[in-house]
Amino acid sequence: MTEAIYDAGYSAPSRFYEADAKRLGMAPSAWARGGEGVTIRWTTADTSLGALFVAATDKGLCRVSFDEDAEDLRRRFPNARIEPGDAALANLAAQVVAAVESPDRDHDLPLDVRGTAFQEAIWQALRTIPIGETRTYSELAALAGRPAAVRAAGTACGQNPVSIVIPCHRAQRIGGALGGYAYGLDRKRALIERERG
């Protein structure tokens, strides 16, 4: 673990944990225990690409997806307290909808997500891609510091818990092929075209 912390660019383990406390809301132990002790609120919102499922803790978005519902959220976080959303979540969901409908501008939304160190490096790399541009899985792997981990970069994109907000639709194969997308290639193509339009 310590070696991975240094490989990620931190000068000491204490810097990693200090940054982690600022960046993430749900403690690693809560994630490991299926959200135990955490309240997650959810809502759905209509978009031109279909119904969007939005869920958040008090710290930020923990799930943004198409074609899901509260039961899917309960499977992901079996020990969390799952509740329908309130006015604050409705406001946050409206901002996510705006990111779908108006992807031509940045939407800096609070996140409460957790993955492996490599997954999080890929998710951060995705967030650095300018609107209207794409990167190959090879480029993402290199940005994450592991240029040979191309397949793992694709897997990390597929495991992105907050679609749209972490723009995994901007990842593609060498040569311009779209690759995969958890919510269908038609949606991925539409999102890319909107950003380029």
Could you walk me through the main structural features you see in this protein, from its secondary elements to its overall organization?
The chain is an alpha/beta fold and 197 residues long. It is built from nine helices and six strands; from the N terminus they run H-H-H-E-E-E-H-E-H-H-E-H-H-E-H. The strands form two sheets. It has a four-stranded mixed β-sheet. The chain has a two-stranded parallel sheet with strand order 5-6. A hairpin with a 4-residue loop joins strand 2 and strand 3 (61-66). The longest helix has 15 residues, at 87-101. Residues 1-24 have low confidence and may be disordered.
Shape: globular
Number of strands: 6
Proportion of beta-strand residues: 15-25%
| Class of secondary structure makeup | alpha/beta
Sheet with the most strands?
4 strands, mixed
Q: Which stretches are poorly predicted, pLDDT < 50 over at least 5 residues?
A: 1-24
| Strands ordered across the widest β-sheet | 3-2-1-4
Mean pLDDT: 86
Q: How is this structure best summarized?
A:
The chain is 42% helix and 15% strand. It is α/β, with parallel strands linked by helices. The strands form 2 sheets. Strands 3-2-1-4 form a 4-stranded mixed beta sheet.
